[in-house]
Amino acid sequence: MTIFSIRMVSTVLLGLALALGGCSSSDKKTSGVGDDYGDKMPGDMPLELNGDSDSNTAGGIKTIYFDFNSSQLSSETRSILESNASFLKDNSGVEVEIEGHCDERGSVEYNLALGDRRAMAVKNYLSSLGVEVSRLSHTSYGKEKPVEYGHDEMAWQKNRRANFRVLSK
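Above: the chain's sequence. Below: its structure in token form.
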């Protein structure tokens, strides 16, 4: 083999090695709770300090929704909360604040009280499922923090909710 042939083969092999190396995955999955940089949780759900379930940055914790003028937990809501409880029990360092919200109808005072009843209903149910109450706090925003702006049933449904904000992880 000539020097030219050896260089050609070496160049081809180097190019092939670089091409194949570029195809390998460098994504690293974490096996536990993420850090302050929004690491991914199992299932690719980010868990961020001050992240929340409305923006899908609270790990596997999901927002729940309520019927008009109600703080009752439906069977669908209870199912979601059971999944949230499982996540919280599997991630014992995570503390959350449950935020109760309402749609725009009703007075400020009425909606603050309704939002508080919603957040307390969620907190009590999670506690009954084995989540330590010391890891759960709650507050009500009434109608002050809508996620959907509008004056129709579609917007109102999205705002009648309890979401979760991550306080520690």
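The radius of gyration is 24 Å.
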